Amino acid sequence: MSAKPVLWITRRLSDATLKRATRDYDVIINHADGTFISDEIIAMSAQVDAILPCHSELFNADVAAKLNNRVKIIANHSVGVDHCDLPALKARGITVTNTPDVLSDATAEIAMLLLLGAARRAVEGDRLMRTGAWDFWSPSFMVGKQVSGARLGIVGMGRVGQVMARRARGFDMEVHYYNRNRVPPELEQGATYHDTIESLMGVSDFLSLHCPATPQTTGFIDKDMLSLMPDGAVLVNTARGALVNESALLDAITVGKLSAAGLDCFQIEPGGNPAFAAYENIFMLPHIGSATTKTRDAMGFRALDNLDAFFAGDKPNDQL
Ligand code: DGY
Questions:
Q1: What confidence score (pLDDT) does residue 2 get?
Q2: What would the mean pLDDT of 32-54 be, rounded to a whole number?
Q3: Domain housing 168
Q4: CA 289 / ligand 1 centre spacing (Å)
Q5: Any idea what the Cα angle at residue 291 is, between residues 64 and 148, rounded to 5°?
Q6: Rounded to the nearest whole angstrom, what is the distance from the C-alpha of residue 129 to the centroid of ligand 1?
Q7: Confidence at residue 46, expressed as pLDDT on a 0 to 100 scale
């Protein structure tokens, strides 16, 4: 019997994922769950046939060029692959896969939580209750922005964007979207298509980002884009921090152009943007869009499915 491929699992994945991986591969698991710098990734690559990383491990052009020839596949435990330089990895003959679909529900749930929490002042209300500072009530107390009946702009009508649209319809929101290509009517479900992002911004009382971070989209939510939004709009980001120019966002919050923001992603992770902490109308979470037990298992299994297909000599379903 031939030896099992050696698989490096760079983070602490779900128990079910680790159990299956341990059954089928000769695994090296990072039980300590710390992150690795590029030199450590390059050094480890000499010992393994496959890597199962998260978005926390960087495979830029430099790393790709220096990975050991032994590595044949990077089976990501993420849908986003902005941490991977795909052309550079392809040039090295390394297969790259991701885990689409399985995290759409969980991520849209967090987007809805952020949207609602930002609109209805959840941070401020929670702080008042927790500190015992709630000593006053009036009809003008903690008045927020109504979600039902408002217009939601979705940037990126892919899998997560489509689930977000369904959740928003449950709140009687009017759904608008921008996507590189208009989606078919059965996926559009009555949503209004905008063929430019600028046009979408103009109608978005709420804007939710569901597009990948690429050189083209990096920083595209900037001062000019934000200025196109209706006054008092709310920005929600569960996609990638790189999409948003954070100083432009802070300026828009400070002058009241945006009434609130809900953010799960930041330019610097972990850590986020300390300047945001002073603003109770910025509702923040630490990149937990896909962090449910069910979804973590599904992401791990999807990554293993891709590895299994690869080592069986087939094309993995999620090969990029
Ligand atoms: C993803 O899958 O891209 C999520 O952001 C978690 O990594």
A1: 65
A2: 97
A3: 104-284
A4: 8
A5: 120
A6: 32
A7: 97
